[in-house]
Amino acid sequence: xxxxxxxxxxxxxxxxxxxxxxxGQGEYERNRRQLTAEASAAVRGVHAAEAxxxxxxxxxxxxxxxxxxxxxDRRSVLLRGKPKPNGMMAGLSGSVxxxxxxxxxxxxxxxxxxxxxxxxxxxxxxxxxxxxxxGELGLNTALAAHSGVPVVLVSGDDSVAAEAAEVAPGMxxxxxxxxxxxxxAALLHPGEACERIEAEVPGALAGRDAVRPLRFxxxxxxxxxxxxxxxxxxxxxxxxxxLAGGCTLxxxxxxxxxxxxxIQLITVLGGS
Length: 272
Description:
single chain, alpha/beta, Rossmann fold, Gyrase A, domain 2, 2 domains, seven-stranded mixed sheet, five-stranded antiparallel sheet, 5 helices, 28% helix
């Protein structure tokens, strides 16, 4: 078995505020240890399902350099640094049997959701593919589905668990905190969060054939709403990019992997 573990940070058990996930801030070092612990719990869960499984852990938060490599379960390979092919889903291929999303969060605009955003909260206010609004979990689930790979488990707050039920019925969710607002939550103990992730992984892998992920076949109409009109200017230098409104960029992608790349590109250019 080959499993990809994509690890974001806003959805881990201890995090409630932007400073909690920002290098140089007081809580960051503690929270990157918890991030590494939750990733390692997922790795242990995979090996409980199949001893000798191949596990790729890909960093998926900010600069993709948050996990502490020396503390990560050594039965995994860490994909670290930026940029990486497929970004948050680096390591994805048709040879992967399943994906686990650890530490994920709700999409931009989700009410009562801890640190909800889509890719970059300072740039993007919504992303739509063929008219459907998607956050990072949905975008990544669809990319995996294009390769025939199911995302079988997500951990984070209760809002991302609800999102999982929409983008991939059958995906399991480990709720490590109940959102009380955008920067407040009722938290599981960090150790309890790790235990629940580890315990849930084997069943999620065993039930991977029952997951029904969102999938886009054929051309995809991409629309990205950015925060400010000036954030559209550099993206409009891309051939085929259109302005569909003061803050909305539109692109007709021939397929979903291209759509995924264009969304990432708009985010980079909009934040430049």
